[in-house]
Amino acid sequence: MKTVLVVEDDIGIQKQLKWSLSDYELVFADDKASAMTQLRRYEPAVVTLDLGLPPDPANASQGLACLAEILAVQPDCKVIVLTGNTDNAHALKAVALGAYDYYQKPIDADVLNIIIQRAFKLTELEQENKALKASNSIQLDIIGNSDAMLKACRTVEKIAPTEITTLLLGESGTGKEVFARAIHKQSLRNNKPFVAINCASIPENLLESELFGYEKGAFTGANKTTLGKIECANGGTLLLDEIGDMPLSLQAKMLRFLQERVIERIGGRQEIEADVRVICATHRNLAEMVASQTFREDLYYRISEITLTIPPLRERGHDIIIIARALLHKFNQDYRSQVHGFTDNAIQAMLLHSWPGNIRELQNKLKSAVILTDNKLIDAVDLGLNGNHHSKLDTLRKVREQAETQAIRHAYAVANTNLSKTADLLGITRPTLYALIDKYRLHDLRHTDHDH
Ligand SMILES: Nc1ncnc2c1ncn2[C@@H]1O[C@H](COP(=O)(O)OP(=O)(O)OP(=O)(O)O)[C@@H](O)[C@H]1O
C-alpha cells in the first residue's frame, strides 16, 4: 500500500482524511517537528500539509517553513497543501515554494483522491525517467558489446534495484569501480552519495577511523568529531574496494556493521544507524583466503550474497578495439592531438596482447602513444607492443607456399634425398615436383639429386 504523510493538527480532520483516503496507508504528524521525523522514517512520496500548524495555527508561517524543510530533505516529494477556503494567497505562495498542488477545505474525498493519485503517477513517471537516464549512462560508462560484457551488464540491471550485498571479482583494472558505480546509478539510491574506499591503500591503523569515524578526543590529534565513510554514505552506496586487504581485526567490526547496520565511532558510546548499501570488490581469491584463514568465512558469506565476476580485457574479444577507439577519441580531446586511428599491425597486436593490467594498461599505453607519436595512425611500436603478427593475416597463397615447402622438405628427407622417391611419397609426378622446386626456389634440393 502506498504511504501518504498527513501533517494536520486537527484531530477531526485527521479522522476525516483517514476515512476519505482509505486506499492509502496514512501516517500522521501534528506539527513541524513530528512531520520531519515521520518524513525521514517513511520517506512518503506524497504529503498533505495543513498550512496552519501550531504554535501559529492562525497563520501559515509554520506550514510554509515545514514545506520548505520537507522539500530540502526530499526534493521529489509531492506536497499537497490544505488551506482554509479564504487562504488563496498562502496557497499560491506554497506552490511558488515548490508545493505540488493545493486544496481548499472542506474536504471532498473524490477530489482529494484524484489529486493524490495524480501525484503518485507523476512520482512514478519521474522515477522511470531517472532509471532510463541511468541505464543510458551505464551504456556510456561501460564500453563494450562482447557477450561477456553484455552478460555482466544484464546482471547489473537485475541486481541494481535490489538491496543485495554484491561482491565484484576481477583482475586489477577490469573496471570493478565502474561496475559498482553503475549498480549505484541504476538503483533507487542514485540521488544519494556513492562513497568508495580502497582498503589496500590506507594504512591499517587509519582504516578503522576512515570507515567508522571518531569522536573528538578519541585519540591524540582527534580535534573534532569526524564522520567515517560509512556515515558519509548514509542513504547511498559504499564501495569497499580491495576488501581482501582488510585486516582481520577490522573484519570483525565490519561484520557487525553488516549484520546490525549500526556503527560506533571510535571513542563513541552511542550506536548510530547507517542505511548503506554495500558493494565489495577485490582482485584476490577470497575463497582461498578463507581456506587459509586470512579472511573471515562469516564475512565472506555476508558480503557475497551475489558475486559478479568481471571478465579480463583479453577475454572481451573485439571490445579491446572499441574501448581503444573510445579512449583515443578522449585523449585526442585531452591533449589536442589529431591521431586518426590505428594501423592494422597495432590492431592485431592489441588483439593478441594478454593485457595483464587490463583497461588501465590500455589507457596508459594509449595515452603515451597519443602524446609521443608524430604519425596520424598509432602503430604497434607506439603502444610498446610486439608488431610481428603478420602470420595471422597471411594470404592463402602464402599459407599454401609454406605448407608445400614444408611437406616437400619432409618427404625429401624421408626419401633420403632421392627426388623420384620424394615425388612418389608426395603423390605427384617428377615434373610437378621439379616445377614446385623452381617455384619455391628450393634449389639446394636439385643439387643433391641422386637419381639423375
Ligand atoms: N568498459 C570500460 N570502458 C571504458 N573504460 C573503462 C571500462 N571499464 C573500466 N574502464 C576504465 O578503466 C580504469 C580502471 O577501472 P576501475 O578503476 O574501475 O578498475 P578496478 O577493477 O576497480 O581496478 P583496481 O582493482 O585496480 O582498483 C578506469 O579509468 C575506468 O574508467
Automatic annotation (TrEMBL):
GO terms for biological process: phosphorelay signal transduction system; regulation of DNA-templated transcription. It comes from Arsukibacterium ikkense. GO terms for molecular function: ATP binding; sequence-specific DNA binding. InterPro entries: AAA+_ATPase, AAA_lid_NorR, CheY-like_superfamily, Homeodomain-like_sf, HTH_Fis, P-loop_NTPase, PEP-CTERM_resp_reg, Sig_transdc_resp-reg_receiver. Residues 3-120 form the Response regulatory domain. This is Fis family transcriptional regulator. PANTHER family: ALGINATE BIOSYNTHESIS TRANSCRIPTIONAL REGULATORY PROTEIN ALGB (PTHR32071:SF113), TRANSCRIPTIONAL REGULATORY PROTEIN (PTHR32071). The modification 4-aspartylphosphate is found at D50. Residues 142-371 form the Sigma-54 factor interaction domain. The lineage of its organism: Bacteria, Pseudomonadati, Pseudomonadota, Gammaproteobacteria, Chromatiales. Keywords: ATP-binding, DNA-binding, Nucleotide-binding, Phosphoprotein, Transcription, Transcription regulation.
